[in-house]
Specification:
Elements lengths: L18 H18 L5 H11 L2 H10 L2 H13 L6 H16 L11 H15 L10 H6 L5 H4 L8 H16 L13 H9 L5 H8 L3 H16 L24 E3 L2 E4 L10 E4 L7 E4 L2 H13 L8 E3 L3 E7 L5 E7 L5 E4 L1 H14 L3 H14 L3
Antiparallel strand pairs: 1-2, 2-3, 3-4, 5-6, 6-7, 7-8
Helix pairs in contact: 1-2, 1-3, 3-5, 5-10, 5-12, 6-9, 6-10, 6-12, 12-15
Length: 380
């Protein structure tokens, strides 16, 4: 009996790639691994590219290899009311996903409900461009959303477009009317990236018409994602800098209330710092220069439950707590997480600082500078 011939071996192709291409392949490997939930090697990514020959995938990797340049070009096109290519919307959606999932383990620092609603509405707008009762991707979409009783009774192959729309709409309604202890559907932002990556849109005008109304929300979450992913704001190094000249430009006003005061030193390249003058024998002053730190400090002053004993704020930059003194008064303490500096304030001082920040952010020049910083950092 003749021996069975061994199966033919697949040819092994060995090629030398540049460092730039290797860097791009590594980015794509991370993206595909995140989508599939499985570890993928760089060689597997290269093989998929060769087999699919998807130019849009290569263009996406090219754009993400220079994210600041790419995102600035995208923003300039939107401001000029020019349409974006699908790949450009895709990179915005990618950083939106990173922004939505950034600091997800810290309740105080999570993305806002309003931004999640905006992303879900953008997804529905794009999803609605498909005229299909069911797509192979529908089970994935509902898996990234809070559980739905009707969907849970169905097999994967029976989940269709109506299930996706209903579950998204229920999620939006829950975000608009949150209940105590309700978990945020952080993973829902993956759906926008996935639908843009997996769907071919023949009419780019319709795609832009669906997404353009949601641009303000998408950009602020995109900028947030870039900041927490890359550790730097989307700053245009080539733009003419707005250099502050203390002899020409007016100083931002100082604000006082009782024994507390704040002043806002302007930065040389835009923006400003925040300096707190606190009450006490030593009259301590506490400076903050980072936009993200100032942003969380404002959020803490507005949202922290300082009226009750044993309340806690556990943010990325600050920790705050309350305790009841022997006199029955509430002591409010807050500290910066990076240096441990702690201050104890009475109710009056806490309210004074909160009022000072509210007054400061009503000033037109403060608002203008803050809005410019928001474009660079996004929602923090």
């Amino acid at each position: 009996m003749a021996e069975k011939a061994p199966p033919p071996q697949q040819p092994v192709i060995s090629i030398r790639i540049s460092e730039a291409l290797r860097y791009r392949l590594e980015h794509l490997r991370k993206i595909l691994s995140l989508k599939s939930g499985e570890s993928i090697s760089t060689s597997e990514v290269a093989k998929q590219l060769l087999e699919s020959a998807r130019d849009d995938r290569l263009e996406f990797v090219k754009l993400i290899s220079e994210p600041i340049k790419s995102l600035l070009n995208i923003r300039q096109k939107v401001e000029a009311k020019l349409p974006l290519a699908q790949t450009e919307w895709l990179i915005v959606a990618w950083f939106c996903q990173r922004g939505a999932e950034a600091l997800s383990d810290n309740v105080q620092s999570q993305i806002s409900n309003e931004s999640l609603i905006g992303i879900l509405e953008a997804f529905l707008a794009v999803y609605g461009l498909q005229n299909a009762k069911r797509t192979p991707r529908d089970p994935y979409y509902v898996a990234n959303l809070p559980p739905d009783e009707e969907v849970s009774k169905k097999s994967l192959q029976d989940i269709g477009s109506n299930d996706v729309r209903r579950t998204v709409e229920k999620t939006i309604l829950a975000l608009r009317n949150p209940k105590p202890g309700q978990l945020k559907p952080i993973l829902a932002a993956r759906n926008l990236f996935f639908v843009l990556d997996e769907t071919e849109f023949s009419n780019i005008e319709k795609l832009n018409g669906a997404l353009s109304p949601h641009w303000p929300v998408l950009w602020r979450v995109c900028a947030r994602g870039h900041y927490f992913e890359r550790g730097e704001p989307i700053f245009d190094e080539n733009a003419a800098p707005e250099i502050f000249d203390p002899f020409v430009d007016p100083q931002l006003p100082a604000f006082e209330e009782g024994e507390c005061s704040i002043f806002l030193p302007r930065g040389r390249r835009g923006g400003f710092a925040l300096c707190l003058n606190l009450p006490g024998k030593l009259s301590p002053m506490y400076p903050m220069s980072e936009f993200a730190m100032i942003s969380e400090f404002r959020a803490m002053l507005e949202r922290f439950d300082w009226k009750h004993d044993r309340s806690f704020w556990r943010g990325y930059y600050f920790f705050a707590s309350t305790s009841k003194l022997e006199s029955g008064e509430i002591d409010i303490a807050f500290r910066a997480n990076h240096n441990g500096i702690t201050f104890h304030l009475e109710r009056g001082a806490w309210l004074a600082i909160r009022n000072l920040l509210r007054r400061a952010w009503e000033h037109p020049e403060v608002c203008r500078l803050w809005d410019e910083e928001m474009l660079r950092y996004g929602e923090i």
